[in-house]
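Lab notebook page, bench 4
Experiment: in silico fold of construct C2
Operator: M.H.
Input chain length: 269 residues
Purpose: comparison with the prior construct
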Amino acid sequence: MPDQTDQSDRTERPGHTDHFAPEGLRTRGTVVVVPGRGETRATYDRFGRRLAADAYRVRVVDAPAVDGGDLPATLSRFAARLTAAVEGAAGEDGTVRPVVVVGSDTGAALVAALYGTAGAPVTGVPEADAVVLAGLPGRATAAADTWDGELDVRTSCPTHRRVLTDDAGVRRGALNDAVPEELLAAAHDGGPALPALILAGDADPLADRDGLHHTAKSLAKARLSVVRGAHHDVLNDLQHRSVAAEVVTFLETLREDLVPLVTVETSAW
């Protein structure tokens, strides 16, 4: 059954959660959010509401499973799930473009690999206009032996820490799981050909900053935005308002063929 909370702009279904633009506003695009290790769809309720408030249709899917021994099968299953998510988000007038896929942690790695150029191509990949890669992991693991230790890796935001702690579906200790090397190579070495916004916290111990710079510079249309003081859960840390604004700015710029709507000519900061 749909969640009865915020029924007018949020609905729950098996496999996904939808956040809708406010009534009376024309939907400006479609955003599909892919969680990472240990996370649930509820992890991204705040982020989904913020983007929906700016008239974007947001669909959050379940975190995909990663088979470390069979990346092609993992990507094929992920492509099928993503296709169903995009097609299911279509309204009476079809899918509202641009379609942007946002991934966090291993969700970001899977998005980068799926829309990238490394390895064997995957069939049935849904057409997207851009990707957002948040908290793209490197080879480090959390090495946290307590829940508080894992939370310290994820975030310093008290609200987000409470959301994760109170969610019985969150798998504790997930950040101690190593990301398969094959997936990391596909994500970093053959990144997406689509326009990409890469988001990283400068206090994220799981990020490979040199690798992120290499990935961003190797892509034709990429922007690496580093968030001061943010941890691994860069979409949900203390700076979540500024990060959401960065994502919305990217979405709006994408609608203008990547020509910025606002440029700074003079500033005291």
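Observations: The first strand starts at residue 10 and ends at 13. The radius of gyration is 17 Å.
Next step: discuss at group meeting.
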